[in-house]
Amino acid sequence: MKTIILVRHAKSSWEDFRLPDHDRPLLDMGVRRTALIADYLAGKGIAVDLFLSSTAARAYDTAKIIAEKLNYPESKIVTNENLYHGSANDIFSELYGLPDDIKAVMVFGHNPSFTYFVNHYLSPTIENLPTSGTVGISFETDKWEEIDSSKFHVNFMVTPKMLKSK
Fold first, then answer.
1. What is the torsional sign of CA 25, 31, 33, 37?
2. For residue 5, which of 69, 86, 104, 106 is within the disulfide window of CB 3.0 to 4.6 Å?
3. Global pTM?
4. Closest CA to 77 of 89, 63, 90, 97
C-alpha cells in the first residue's frame, strides 16, 4: 500500500510586490488555518515516511507547521524545485522516483497542479483545492511507479473551512 497526502500551501501574502513570488511569506490567517489542518491530521493519527515540499517559502513554511504537529523533524523535509511550477505530471514523476520502502508521503505545493492531480481521483471533481486544502489517497500497490494503474481509495479531503464549521 502507498499513501499520498497532498497539502496545498497556506494562504500567503501579496503585500510586498517587490518580493519574488517564490519568497512570499504566509499570512497569519494562513498559519492559523494550517494549524487546523495539522490538528485534524494529528487527530487521525497520520504518520508519513517523507515530507516533500516545493522550494517556495509558502509551501515549505506550511510543511514546517504540519511537521511540528506530527513530530516530523524539520531537518528531514525534502524540498524539490519541480513542485514549484510543476504540472500534475511532474508530481507523478516525483512520486514514481520515490524508493519503494517509503510507504507514505506528504507533498506540499501549489495550484493549479494540485487541483489537477487530485481530480484524477476525486468524484465529483473539484474546481479548486483551496489554500491549506488537504487530500489523502491510498493505492493498492507496493511500487510507486504503479500508482497510476492501481486501485485507489480517497481517504479524506479536508479544508480549513470544513474544520471551522465544526
1. positive
2. 106
3. 0.94
4. 63
Task: Encode pLDDT of 130-153 as tens digits.
Answer: 999 999 999 999 999 999 999 999
Q: Provide the b/e sequence for 39-71 (b: ≥16 CB within 10 Å).
A: ebbeeeebebebbbbbebbbbbbbbbbbbebbe
Give 83-103 pLDDT, tens digit per residue.
988 899 999 999 999 999 999
Strands (E) located in the chain: 2-8, 50-54, 78-80, 104-109, 134-139, 152-158
Return all residues near 119 (Cβ < 8 A) that are at least 6 apart: 125, 126
Mean pLDDT of the chain: 93
Q: State residue 85's pLDDT score.
A: 85
For residue 130, say if its preceding peptide bond is cis, omega within 30 degrees of 0: no
Of 158, 143, 160, whose CA–CA distance to 98 is shortest?
Answer: 143
The residue to which cell 491530521 is assigned: 41
**Whether the Cβ atoms of residue 33 and residue 62 lie closer than 8 Å to each other:** no
Laid out side by side, the sheet with 152-158 consists of 78-80, 50-54, 104-109, 2-8, 134-139, 152-158
| Whether residue 166 has pLDDT greater than 70 | no
